[in-house]
UniProtKB/TrEMBL annotation:
Keyword Transmembrane among record annotations: yes
Membrane spanning stretches: 21-40, 76-97, 103-125, 137-156, 200-219, 247-266, 278-295, 302-322, 334-349
A GO molecular-function annotation: transmembrane transporter activity
Localization of this protein: Cell membrane
Topology class, membrane: Multi-pass membrane protein
Family matches, as Pfam families: BPD_transp_2
UniProt source species: Leadbettera azotonutricia (strain ATCC BAA-888 / DSM 13862 / ZAS-9) (Treponema azotonutricium)
One of the record's GO cellular component terms: plasma membrane
Protein name: ABC transporter integral membrane protein
Statement: the UniProt record of this protein carries the keyword Membrane: yes
UniProt keyword list: Cell membrane, Membrane, Transmembrane, Transmembrane helix
């Protein structure tokens, strides 16, 4: 009996490793090792955990934007800059109207919604025309809209002196400070300070929880259930009277809306609006984070978002401090690129293996 029990347990362990994947397990234990090693190389663990939580609050909503598009069967949203550009338009318009504080942040959010809905609808129509090649087309859509907006940022009639180039009075600056507007408006809301180093960004975490709860409600609504059915089995969904194209467009629009909200959340924590080519590769960390959390190309959950964002941001936070202290060289960017692209390659190769 004991041999049978051991064999069953061994099978369960092997099945878990196969489902979860060796890359994710290796990264998980790497993160644990970084936290354990931190005190031994003179790094304050309180400060490190605070930085991880701040980064989690800043980036969580952008990772959450991946869920509806993946669930609808449209694949990984490499076109996330479509939603990000909508958020940038909302934030720059809010600054142009001199909105500050909470009114500035939520005003930017409201102003970005029409752009996110319109861009998401057009983006969804395009992806419906290229079924089977969504991820490739999405990447070039993201690159194209960022490049197009690099021209528009120069010619749009903004006049706020804080935003425009000082020597011409025209064209938006590459980086615009949010000081005096809504810098850290969420991070500082109900912030909890423990000791000299640790701060809990209550507002940013609460905002992520609210956005995750809204996504959870949406995915369990009638529309969300139909969207999931389309992603799981389009033929079965079509036979049940579900419009596949309509559901895919809704998934893309939701992803774009959350992308717009996500960049606004990122901006307030970072303290700056970054324009021109800055959004070009913002989709890759979000894609890598949700894959790191255990999502597959066509299936994602909010738990995947939470786990993946925490692990990915832990690596970005702990690697520079711990590894640099040990090796006396900066390897943080190398490790970030390695993990981001490595997780994307791993997920895509697993997909091709299953569908072959």
């Amino acid at each position: 009996m004991s041999n049978i029990a051991v064999k069953i347990d061994k099978n369960k362990i092997e099945e878990f490793i196969s489902d979860f994947g060796w890359p994710r397990l290796i990264i998980f234990f790497f993160v644990v090792a970084l936290f354990i090693a931190a005190p031994f190389v003179g790094i304050n663990p309180d400060s490190s955990i605070k930085d991880v939580l701040v980064r989690f609050g800043q980036n969580g909503v952008m990772v959450l934007a991946m869920v509806p598009m993946m669930q609808s069967g449209s694949g990984l949203n490499f076109g996330l800059p479509v939603g990000i550009v909508a958020g940038l338009l909302g934030s720059t318009l809010a600054m142009q109207f001199q909105l500050t504080g909470p009114a500035g942040f939520f005003g930017a959010l409201l102003l970005s919604m029409p752009f996110a809905i319109l861009f998401g609808y057009l983006y969804g129509l395009l992806l419906n025309k290229v079924k089977g090649e969504e991820m490739t087309i999405a990447m070039y859509v993201g690159f194209s809209i960022v490049t197009f907006m690099s021209i528009m940022w120069l010619i749009l009639p903004f006049s706020n002196p804080t935003m425009v180039w000082g020597y011409t009075g025209k064209g938006l600056r590459t980086t615009i400070t949010l000081d005096g507007y809504w810098s850290r408006i969420l991070n500082n809301f109900l912030v909890v300070k423990i000791g000299p180093f640790f701060e809990f960004p209550t507002g940013a975490i609460l905002f992520f929880v609210v956005m995750a709860f809204i996504m959870w409600l949406f995915m369990r609504s009638r529309t969300g259930t139909a969207l999931t059915a389309v992603g799981s089995n389009p033929g079965f969904a079509r036979a049940g009277g579900v419009s596949v194209n309509r559901c895919r467009i809704i998934g893309v629009m939701m992803s774009s809306i959350y992308g717009a909200i996500g960049i606004l959340t990122y901006q307030q924590g970072f303290g700056f609006i970054q324009l021109y080519n800055s959004p070009l590769y913002m989709a890759f960390p979000a894609v890598a984070a949700i894959l790191l959390g255990g999502a597959s190309v066509n299936k994602a959950s909010i738990l995947n978002v939470v786990v993946g964002t925490f692990l990915f941001q832990s690596i970005l936070t702990m690697t520079p401090s711990v590894i640099n202290s040990v090796l006396r060289t900066d390897m943080s960017e190398v490790i970030r690129i390695l993990i981001s692209n490595g997780m994307i390659i791993y997920a895509l190769t697993r997909k091709s293996k299953v569908t072959k």
